[in-house]
Inverse folding.
């Protein structure tokens, strides 16, 4: 029996581990073969204390495991089978940043060695192979509608940590997307926007978020072009915050992360199942190569610095 919610505390707990800004960058490094503490620290820019905590959390969550090397007590951090299942989410994050980040530091080009084509990952429904977008998914809500979900988000939001410093490591790949969805309040605002919330007062009410934090996060999301600030009343001026194309394009990534967290739970703790409108089946998302349709694995993907 599920909880009747789309995002519950158990799923939020999983997202806390893998959706944290530093965890996203650690996973990026793990998929690139970076395994040693100092190597990861240099590329992520995390402090020693922060990196130690995040690595311990990922080990506790069975995403990474420690493997001794050399002499003494030195260890490497390697992906477990559970951690390797997050590769699809990392690929979607890579694609989002390649598509939308206009800075000088863009992710390197990826190539799928199985088919020899440039890798353009695609999130698709396992049942019908159609692409998964925000508009293609039925929330499959219970009779009570979204209010129980917002009540749960308020409770989850009360446990959020304050915003951490942004990534400053030598490797800037995925820095933008990790700063967007790696902040807990920003991610909850984004999820609320997926549910159709638009107005400032509604974000504040549904999430029980302090006005100064909400104002800061909304400004950040507007500056990042994830939300659009649109005036809907002239006097006094009032605004809606609607998903921009960049924001809508984050939906598959967030849903793949949700799915990963959900699949780690026993059946009685799982959230409400989503349904794909195209085929009417319960939604299971696969991330595949857009050219050959096969699921990429880390060893099948090569990285080129050529843009």
């Amino acid at each position: 029996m599920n909880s009747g919610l789309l995002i519950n505390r158990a799923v939020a707990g999983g997202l806390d581990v893998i959706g944290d800004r530093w965890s996203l960058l650690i996973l990026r490094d793990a998929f690139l073969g970076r395994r040693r503490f100092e190597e990861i620290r240099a590329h992520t820019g995390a402090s020693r204390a922060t990196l130690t905590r995040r690595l311990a959390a990922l080990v506790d969550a069975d995403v990474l495991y420690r493997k001794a090397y050399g002499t003494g007590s030195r260890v490497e951090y390697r992906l477990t089978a559970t951690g390797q299942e997050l590769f699809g989410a990392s690929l979607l994050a890579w694609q989002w940043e390649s598509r939308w980040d206009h800075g000088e530091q863009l992710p390197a080009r990826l190539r799928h060695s199985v088919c020899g084509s440039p890798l353009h990952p695609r999130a698709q429904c396992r049942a019908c192979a159609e692409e998964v977008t925000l508009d293609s998914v039925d929330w499959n809500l219970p009779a009570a509608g979204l209010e129980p979900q917002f009540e749960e988000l308020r409770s989850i939001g009360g446990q959020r940590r304050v915003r951490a410093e942004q990534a400053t490591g030598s490797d800037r790949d995925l820095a933008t997307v990790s700063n967007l969805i790696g902040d807990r309040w920003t991610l909850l605002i984004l999820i609320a926007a997926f549910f159709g919330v638009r107005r400032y007062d509604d974000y504040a009410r549904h999430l029980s978020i302090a006005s100064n934090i909400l104002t800061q996060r909304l400004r950040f999301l507007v500056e990042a072009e994830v939300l659009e600030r649109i005036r809907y009343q002239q006097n006094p001026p009032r605004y809606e915050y609607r998903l921009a194309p960049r924001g809508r394009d984050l939906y598959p990534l967030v849903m793949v992360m949700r799915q990963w967290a959900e699949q780690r739970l026993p059946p009685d703790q799982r959230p409400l199942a989503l349904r794909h409108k195209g085929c009417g089946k319960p939604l299971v998302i696969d991330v595949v190569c857009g050219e050959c349709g096969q699921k990429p694995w880390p060893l099948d993907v090569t990285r080129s610095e050529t843009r």
